[in-house]
Amino acid sequence: MEMLKAILGEKLKAFLEEDVGLGDVTTNLIVPPEVKIRAQMMVKESAVIAGLSEMKVLFNDVVGVRFRCLVNDGDEVSPNTVIAEVEGDGRAILMTERTALNLLSRMCGIATATRILVKKIEDAGLNVHVAATRKTAPGLRYFDKKAVIIGGGDPHRFRLDDQILIKDNHVAIIGGVGEALRRVHSSASFSKKIEVEVKTLNEAIEAAKSGADVIMLDNMGVDEIGEIINALRRLNLREKVLIEVSGRINEENILEYARLGPDIISVGEITHSVKSVDVSLEVIEVVK
Amino acid sequence: MEMLKAILGEKLKAFLEEDVGLGDVTTNLIVPPEVKIRAQMMVKESAVIAGLSEMKVLFNDVVGVRFRCLVNDGDEVSPNTVIAEVEGDGRAILMTERTALNLLSRMCGIATATRILVKKIEDAGLNVHVAATRKTAPGLRYFDKKAVIIGGGDPHRFRLDDQILIKDNHVAIIGGVGEALRRVHSSASFSKKIEVEVKTLNEAIEAAKSGADVIMLDNMGVDEIGEIINALRRLNLREKVLIEVSGRINEENILEYARLGPDIISVGEITHSVKSVDVSLEVIEVVK
Amino acid sequence: MEMLKAILGEKLKAFLEEDVGLGDVTTNLIVPPEVKIRAQMMVKESAVIAGLSEMKVLFNDVVGVRFRCLVNDGDEVSPNTVIAEVEGDGRAILMTERTALNLLSRMCGIATATRILVKKIEDAGLNVHVAATRKTAPGLRYFDKKAVIIGGGDPHRFRLDDQILIKDNHVAIIGGVGEALRRVHSSASFSKKIEVEVKTLNEAIEAAKSGADVIMLDNMGVDEIGEIINALRRLNLREKVLIEVSGRINEENILEYARLGPDIISVGEITHSVKSVDVSLEVIEVVK
Amino acid sequence: MEMLKAILGEKLKAFLEEDVGLGDVTTNLIVPPEVKIRAQMMVKESAVIAGLSEMKVLFNDVVGVRFRCLVNDGDEVSPNTVIAEVEGDGRAILMTERTALNLLSRMCGIATATRILVKKIEDAGLNVHVAATRKTAPGLRYFDKKAVIIGGGDPHRFRLDDQILIKDNHVAIIGGVGEALRRVHSSASFSKKIEVEVKTLNEAIEAAKSGADVIMLDNMGVDEIGEIINALRRLNLREKVLIEVSGRINEENILEYARLGPDIISVGEITHSVKSVDVSLEVIEVVK
Amino acid sequence: MEMLKAILGEKLKAFLEEDVGLGDVTTNLIVPPEVKIRAQMMVKESAVIAGLSEMKVLFNDVVGVRFRCLVNDGDEVSPNTVIAEVEGDGRAILMTERTALNLLSRMCGIATATRILVKKIEDAGLNVHVAATRKTAPGLRYFDKKAVIIGGGDPHRFRLDDQILIKDNHVAIIGGVGEALRRVHSSASFSKKIEVEVKTLNEAIEAAKSGADVIMLDNMGVDEIGEIINALRRLNLREKVLIEVSGRINEENILEYARLGPDIISVGEITHSVKSVDVSLEVIEVVK
Amino acid sequence: MEMLKAILGEKLKAFLEEDVGLGDVTTNLIVPPEVKIRAQMMVKESAVIAGLSEMKVLFNDVVGVRFRCLVNDGDEVSPNTVIAEVEGDGRAILMTERTALNLLSRMCGIATATRILVKKIEDAGLNVHVAATRKTAPGLRYFDKKAVIIGGGDPHRFRLDDQILIKDNHVAIIGGVGEALRRVHSSASFSKKIEVEVKTLNEAIEAAKSGADVIMLDNMGVDEIGEIINALRRLNLREKVLIEVSGRINEENILEYARLGPDIISVGEITHSVKSVDVSLEVIEVVK
After folding, report:
1. Which chain C residue's Cα is nearest to E6?
2. Do residue B28 and residue C142 have CB atoms under 8 angstroms apart?
3. E98 is a catalytic site residue
4. Are residues A89 and A9 in the same domain?
């Protein structure tokens, strides 16, 4: 996922403005305007790197200094790896430091958490996709979803308008999965996939027969999910739908779910409870 | 910290727009426009609540439905507590659900993590402030800092323009803490506090003597910090400055630092590595 | 498709501001501030109405006067039908008049053109969807797509991020439909439908076999399209994919294409070459 | 009319963002980031070209690829003319394609329709200006008006603040053309022209005598307009005012009106019912 | 000039946000959220009031407290006049105080300065309009121009697009007033007035004969202006054009210029060098 | 204070757009697009220059022409000094002229007025800081504060969130300076200075003893202030606080206040009643 620089730049400018306010009063008092510096971005812990292409746009295009990547987005690095260098106007680099690191360390955190889950499944020889949810930080949907992709995950839908997903609250209002599916099938755009959250085997069967593209099994126990998947197989309905499993799945229990053979396991935690990766920016040279 | 509703509303509208896009295609197909619903927000785990006043502005002022709090920001709740009810246009409530929960669960997460640290210190009978840093999610500075305050913490500076904080990179460029302090003292606005990160006892002494308001001891070991604080006491300089301790401090080790007698312990983790609190919104009644 | 009022209001405010500038110099000189008026919106020609819910938000929520619909979005009206009344502050209504009519008459124009095509197909007893394209006026995507839906059409994808659609330029760059499909299938999100533009029967077969959800036959003659559809039927591939036909299809020739039995016919003209419906706003009473 | 690039660029960025959303999911999956392409913009039908200077800003300044015009804005081209080439980053060009063409084809459509009317009048040896109205698509005022100018038309007023135009609704509220003119003459800025819509010869005479700059004859029959113009001539008032004729005038009937000798004929249709010109962008070379 | 509240409110919100930042840290610490207050706006010196309708929108519509005017925009008040009362949420009123007063005191300052000039001319029995220029504070064009109107002045053109004004730099580039006028007359929109700055009597004559609507005599001495006006009278050209005189005209010397009989005297000082009127907001009651 | 160019550029673009509207209709008619010009900015009166770094960003980065400073921000110049040259696209320079001069002449005016006060105090051999207030023009806080700094003044707080300042209205609501200070001391962030406006000696003593950082003596007579400062000295409290004096202090009376020995004298007038410095931009060469 590579955004047009001009659009990405607007978002990054807004982030900068939030942190800078009327100016970096410390830097402006201490660092003379003509000072040029060279600095390094170092990752302090094992991590999957994500956010470097955002850093390029931030430093090169928005701030106007030189940013050079030493690794690529998606690379796994060991602790204390220098991942990039930035060189240019000293004041500008210091004013940008915190905004840059806040974004980068969050994106690395998401990519790293995603990769751990993806690898677990791969290492177990299973073929299940790890997907994100819409549980992203407000205003950061693009960055959170992109980091998931870099980590090897599926971004899932981007917002309320790009896929049809019938959830418990829809069913609660309209009275039944069947009625919800009927309304959707009669009027939905052909361009959207239709997913429906089901609570029982009967609902799962109804969904699969009606032509839903994806069935979501949310907040169910491992046994319950297993039974539904097996029943769908017996009824020759398994191949007609994708099955997404969701709800409090994490590093500890993901393999239990993955072994049941769903197509997708979606995990809110990778974006709603991000553990930032520790990255620092250190001045290594004052360039006269 | 209570923001003017009109200003807060603008930010919340932008968050909504990010999640809604051109519209909630599912809800629009399933829920007729005249349906009114009543729904509850339930917190699934122990938590300190933060974000309710934002929810009021979001639901009442921006979206135009009725939102009623059952607890207050700052309250500690046990698992499965209903904290609020929302009632009104069904489509509007469902379109707002995810944006609302994403913000609320993050703010609760920050307030809860902050409170845990604050309590630990209080329970040990110590008098040290827990402070946030500028390590907040881009675009969410206001919300992250507010949640820290609700949790009982000190928000620390809001951005680069509201306090002078001389950090390692400033010193690296200018060649010494002394020179940095000199430049700052000669030109800084009287309205700003001056804080300086020091690496040695000598720098600490220099800072205290020069009239710095706050000394930051960043990424130092417990012993080193203890020695500096004790030396400042012996030299009758301790009372002249506030001392802030920072750097990889967390729930496990915070008391070790607190017992050394600093004024402030700042913790990046409470905002850069937020564990969201699990909150759900469930429709409990379709109101004809 | 019903947008949250608060979000829609922002767009409408921007439209108003474009037309008002620093103020309605004429109205401010002539109409005293205390004058209240009642005015009617009249449609001068046969039309399908679209845009009334936007007018409600514009007049009621943004401008703060009373707007009352006399018909509904989607209704077909005969010439000289009064479709709504607006009552309140005279200056405000006159300042809003042109912006309101410009949006409404465009949306009615799109809905009317769409309905004509949809009816043609229905009247011929065929079951083919009429879809829009992304050929909408810049900045008006939401309004143009919504008007298509009101007219009975399928909005098709909203933008570049909500469906995968491999077009001729993609194929030109990568060297073949097959290679393009391979790349997409290996990495696309499960949440997106995959559509591919094909130029030959072989490409169509390849697409259908590879698991594409939709095949687009763009700018082909009626005969060519017929042959491809028939061939897919013979090969039992017809049911595996949706077929979209596109390219200079209009009121005159749409039935020729519809009779070939595609699933969707997409028509750029309904949004890129809109014939506005003639709507006026006339003051009918000065309310003291 | 040549806008500052920086201001124009902001508008174009907003258009791009509307179409791109979180990213071009298709292009990002298929086209590797290092691919450079060369593409051509071809006009498929006879047209007056308008929008090339916007394309330059869009491609060169906003998107950062090379755009080279082969014709100029205002040129008349025959079908299948290559009007421009664009070369650079493949992903960026494909992400921009639709936004670019949507704007360009609309502007060409407006310029072409305007030119047809202008030529008709010129070919008849008449000296009457063809003018636009404020019936432009919301958000596109600048582009629509500019295309009219390129087509040879007069843009008329830009918005409600740059000319005084007393219309039927003003008169309806205040009770008479005379009273409206009195209010305007007593307080209007000297910097604005004053135009007034009149319904009768007497009103026309009153307007001309009072010092109005322009009289508008709106939605009147050819005979009625002829009588008024002749009467004004007889009374030696013709030279004191400009006369604008308006109301359902189109290619078919414009000469009838033009022959009556007004100064301006304004035509809503050229902007409110735009027939887009068919323009395509085709990749012609993959540049390694 | 009365702007739509919704548009005005957006500008006022941006002003508020500039002053409030992340919140009024003082007020939030001291004033409990439930406190309601009543406060008065008092003007400390003689002034013409302007900005009350902006205050209404700010307090009533944006901030949501009750604002009641005791005088009207345009009224002249003596020192220590209470001009308005505001009542409601205490925090909200204090957060708004400075933004409100900054705008109001500037607008009053402009209106007062304008009125003084206007009165001077009226008291001398002369009939010359006092006009503003485009020398307004960046971002405040609307407010500055409106205050001029309230003071009794003519706002002159709003920006570069609403009148044609050929100035010295245009002439310097193109080589002569005559050539500039020729280009303008051949292509300008009929909807715009044409004004031209002239340096000599010959240029003035050329301008008047060519059909310019307004002649500007900028930075000339009183004698020179007198000669040109008299010469135009002798040549029967005086009635064909409006004459605007400009350049370092102020309270002291305005009558000298006015007695020469121009139509307009424009004065940059009333907006570029505003002396704010002293207005305070004082809490007079804490309403439980 | 040096803002990131990218952030500053956004503000300047908005200023430009306000003045340009849909385009510079005069320049576009007269100046051909290929014309390049060279122009000079000349200051007509004695002044302290401020705003040149904003001009650099405006002309170089936003507008894309060459801007070269001949003096520096902060320099004092004599009348008729050429301070900068600009060279490039003729249309672009003329479209930018007024916006540029409006900002520059205001900033020079503020810097000049500030410098006069600062020099007065220096020349009297006193050591008191001249500070600004929040009485800046709405939307221009950054520019007004920066001009104060260039003039040699202290910017004081930037907005409501960067310092705690207890004012008369806070005290009026809460009932006393003591109670206000208590609330603030118990909960304020360590990162903010605490200032309190006092009305009596007793309040001053209370404030100094409680640990306030700054005491403000607002709108008091010279004698009263003298007594309070002397009393604080006698009580050995003078060194514990900074003393700010404020309220209708100007060039005439500032030394009377300065001789009393406060730390800061704040003056609203330097930003709320700006006398713009006369600066012009003149085309000196048409570069083919």
Report:
1. C62
2. no
3. yes
4. yes
Nearest chain A residue (CA) to F5? A63
Question: How far does E54 lie from chain C, in Å, by closest CA?
Answer: 14
Whether residues B18 and A102 touch (CB distance < 8 A) is answered with no
Instruction: Say which CATH number the domain at E213 has.
Output: 3.20.20.70
Q: Which residue, among D78, F20, A46, has the nearest Cα to E162 in the 3D structure?
A: F20
Mutation target to probe the C interface, by most C beta carbons within 10 A, among B12, B15, B22 is B22
Please tell me whether residues C169 and C44 are part of one structural domain.
no
Q: Given the DSSP bridges, would you call strands F214-218 and F242-246 parallel, antiparallel or unpaired?
A: parallel
Q: Tens-digit pLDDT profile for chain F (288 aa)?
A: 789 999 999 999 999 999 999 999 999 999 999 999 999 999 999 999 999 999 999 999 999 999 999 999 999 999 999 999 999 999 999 999 999 999 999 999 999 999 999 999 999 999 999 999 999 999 999 999 999 999 999 999 999 999 999 999 999 999 899 999 999 999 999 999 999 999 999 999 999 999 999 999 999 999 999 999 999 999 999 999 999 999 989 999 999 999 999 999 999 999 999 999 999 999 999 986
Helix-strand-coil percent breakdown of chain C, rounded to 5?
45, 20, 35
E94 and E28 in a common domain = yes
* Residues of C tagged active-site: 98, 135, 167, 197, 218
Tokens read off for D187: 């307080």
Tell me which residue has tokens 């205003």. Answer: A139
Count of helix runs (H) and strand runs (E) in chain B: 11, 12
pLDDT in tens, D220-236: 999 999 999 999 999 99
Helix (H) or strand (E) segment spanning residue C103: helix C90-123
**Quick check: B64 and C6 CB within 8 A?**
yes
E165 by DSSP, 3-state: which?
strand
E126 vs D132, E118, E119, CA distance in Å?
41, 10, 10
Domains held by chain D: number: 2
- The first and second tokens of residue A62, run together, are 């928005």
Q: What is the pLDDT of residues C64-91, one digit of tens each?
A: 999 999 999 999 999 999 999 999 999 9
**Domain shared by D231 and D132, yes or no:** yes
Residue B1 has pLDDT above 80, yes or no: no
Shared domain for B91 and B180, answered yes or no, is: no
Residue C280's domain is classified under what CATH number?
Answer: 3.90.1170.20
Are B191 and F263 within 8 A, CB to CB?
A: no
Q: Compute the average pLDDT of residues D4-13.
A: 96
Q: Report the pLDDT value the prediction gives residue F178, as an integer from 0 to 100.
A: 93
Neighbours of chain B (3+ CB pairs under 8 A): A, C, E, F
Whether residue D185 sits in one domain with residue D45? no
Report pLDDT digits (tens) over B151-183.
999 999 999 999 999 999 999 999 899 999 999
CA pair distance E91, E27, nearest whole angstrom: 6
- Closest residue in D to E192 (Cα) is D193
Distance CA D157, CA A118 (A): 61
Per residue in E45-74, is it b (16+ CB within 10 Å) or e — as a string? eebbbbbbbbbbbbbbbbbebebebebebe
D278: left (phi over 0), alpha (psi -120 to 50) or beta: beta
Q: Among the options E135, E192, E259, E275, which is catalytic?
A: E135
CA-CA-CA-CA dihedral for E166, D195, C101, B23, to nearest 10: 20
- Chains A & F: contacts with CB separation below 8 Å: 37
Residues B132 and B267 in one domain: yes
B41: domain range? 5-117+274-286
Round to whole Å and give the CA distance between A212 and A205: 10
Active site residues per annotation of F: 98, 135, 167, 197, 218
Chain E residues closer than 8 Å to B10 by CB: 13, 17
* Domain identity same for B123 and B237: yes
Return the DSSP state at D218.
Answer: E
